[in-house]
Every structure is written in C-alpha cells, then in structure tokens.
Amino acid sequence: MCTGKCARFLGLCLIPLSLVSIIANALLMAPNAKTTWNDKLSKHVWYMAGFIGGGLMVLCPGIAAVRAGGKGCCGAGCCGNRCRMLRSVFSSAFGVLGAIYCLSVSGAALRLGPRCRTQNDQWTYPFQDTEGSYLVNRTQWSWCVEPPNVVQWNVTLFSLLVAVSCLEIVFCGVQLVNASIGVFCGDCRKEVGRQ
C-alpha cells in the first residue's frame, strides 16, 4: 500500500477516535446526565485525559496524517510529500504520548473507582481498597448512593476511553512508522497537485 494512502486511512481512523474520546470525557463530567455533582467528581475526570490526551493530542496527528496522504499546499512533487510526511512523524509521536496519557489516567480511574456519597453520608472513594475487584462484583456497586448510577457511568466511559486510547496508540504508532518510510522513500504517487 502507498504510504500516502495508508496515512490518509490512518488519519481518517484517528479523527473519529479522538472525537469519541472528547465526548466520553464530556459525559464523565455530567454523571446521570446532570451537572449537579461537578464539585464532587473523581479527580481523574478533572485530569481531562479524554479531552486533552486522547482527544486534542490525537486529533492533530489525525489531521496531519490525512493531509500527508492527500494533495496539500506544502508544495508539489516528492519534496512536498516528504515535507507533509515529516510533519506527520512529529504529530504521530505527539499523538502516541497523548493516547498513553489517556490510557494511564483511565486505567487508574477504573482501578480506584468513582468518588461518590456512600451510605454513611460521606463523599469518598469507596472502592479504593478493592484493587479493582469491584469491576466484577456488582453487589459492591450499591455502596454508592449518589450520584445515581455513577459506578456504571464511570466504568462504561472509562472503559471506552481505555479501548479508544489503545486503538489510538496502535494507529499513531503505525502512522509514525508509515510517515518515517514516506520521509525517506517518498510517496508512491507520481504527481501531486493542489486540492
């Protein structure tokens, strides 16, 4: 496969993944679709790993990869293609770092569990000593009284962020290699015109 076509394909995969990550982080800030508990949310929600790491830091490499695989305005011919591929190399490395940040924060959030009001009327992390075993023991989920369904909300959205960030690491890593090949070997396209 041509390095340009591969870059475009990977970029078109990264863009929706980054948008899913941003939306998931936004939903984490409104448990049970309400903003009533904003001051009581888990610290991992406020780290904005889905918005910054898996979102914006991956959106940039996605756009750079699409541009590297297309007919852009960086010049025509081999030099223009290599210039866009070189930008994509640096963007992809940046994207890998962002996806790793999202993965580590989301994984830690799943292990710690959500912050919630427990049955003894305290706002705390009731699952912090369970080492993540609450994920498979749904009877423990009743320990959280408020916000309603906060455990399901956090588990679903942080699990989604873990899955998305793993895919982003793979796609950004493949684009990093692909763009490096494109820098040294050029693009397989004969002519590049303007869009």
From TrEMBL:
Compartments it resides in: Membrane
Regions that span the bilayer: 9-30, 45-68, 89-110, 157-185
InterPro entries cross-referenced by the UniProt entry: L6_membrane (IPR008661)
Alphabetic keyword roster: Membrane, Transmembrane, Transmembrane helix
Predominant location: membrane
One Gene Ontology CC term in the entry: membrane
Membrane topology designation: Multi-pass membrane protein
Ligase found in the keyword field: no
Entry protein name: Transmembrane 4 L6 family member 5
